[in-house]
Structures are given as structure tokens and as C-alpha cells.
Write a structure and sequence with these properties.
Largest sheet: 2 strands, parallel
Distance between the termini: 52 Å
Helix content: 25-40%
Radius of gyration: 24 Å
Shape: elongated
Order of helices and strands: HHEEHH
Strand order of the largest sheet: 1-2
Length: 155
């Protein structure tokens, strides 16, 4: 809502995408004042940054197939250096929302426990119960919580 193309007062990459005719949302008349050469430079810089990222994640030399997802991928051209082919799947712009929706939930606990009246094993069981409850409070489905790491140190 802060983007110029939506009537806001902040220049965003959404504005750049609309001004560069790479996106069809918002009000294009609100970004028509943007300097064309600046818009082109921003689009080129974003493309170069992504191309650099493609090169960094390759497991071997040579070009690779690239699949673009997420709303920001509208700012990328149809060809990228380092890519054999660039693909945007159907509903590519919803990928981040889907990823966020299916992401795993976690819980973490750091606690000092005075063991007087407790065994070490009882303290660890209590801590596991607390962290499981915390994960469920954060949205985890009961019965699906797994403890992946337990660390205890004697002080």
C-alpha cells in the first residue's frame, strides 16, 4: 500500500515492475513520471543480482534450468545469464504464500534448572514438554512435534 502505483509515497520494486510494463497491477499513471533510464537500470541491476545468485548455487559448471517463483520474479527477464531455460510455472506469484503456509513450526527453550529435588532425566522430560507446548502454541499440530536437538550443560 506504500507503493506509488497504489497511491502511496514510497518507490518500491512494484513501481519499477509497473513502470517497466512487467506487471499489470496498481495504477500505471502514478508511476509514469519515473525516469525510463532509471527504471531500466533497476531492472538490469536486479537481473544481474539474480544471475550472480544462480552462479553461486550451481553444483557444476555450465548453464542450468531455472524456475522462477514468488512475486518478485516479475522483475526478471525471460532469459538470464547462466540459465539454459527460465520457467515461471502457473501461479508462480503465489509460491511464497504457499511456502509460508506449509512451513514447519518450531519452538525453542533455553532454561536454567536447579536440580535439587529433580533428576537430570526429569528436568529434560519437563523441558521437552514445555518446548512441545510452545511449538503447539506457535501453530504446530499436536502429535506431529518432534524434538530434534537436546543440549544440556552442567554448571
Amino acid at each position: 500500500k506504500k507503493a506509488l502505483c497504489f497511491g502511496g509515497d514510497v518507490l518500491t520494486t512494484s513501481d519499477i515492475a509497473v513502470a517497466a510494463d512487467m506487471a499489470d497491477f496498481g495504477n500505471k499513471s502514478l508511476v509514469k513520471h519515473l525516469d525510463e533510464s532509471m527504471v531500466k537500470r533497476v531492472v538490469d541491476q536486479i537481473g544481474q543480482m539474480v544471475e550472480g545468485g544462480i552462479d553461486r548455487v550451481k553444483l557444476q559448471k555450465g548453464d542450468e534450468y531455472v524456475v522462477l517463483v514468488g512475486g518478485g520474479s516479475i522483475l526478471l527477464k525471460k532469459t538470464l545469464a547462466g540459465a539454459i531455460e527460465v520457467t515461471r510455472p502457473k501461479l508462480f506469484d503465489c509460491a511464497n504464500a504457499v511456502g509460508a503456509a506449509i512451513a514447519q513450526v518450531s519452538g525453542e527453550l533455553d532454561e536454567l534448572v536447579h536440580l535439587e529435588g529433580f533428576t537430570r532425566e526429569k528436568a529434560i522430560l519437563d523441558a521437552k514438554a514445555k518446548v512441545t507446548a510452545r511449538a503447539i502454541e506457535n501453530g504446530a499440530v499436536p502429535g506431529t512435534v518432534h524434538i530434534v536437538d537436546v543440549e544440556d550443560q552442567k554448571i
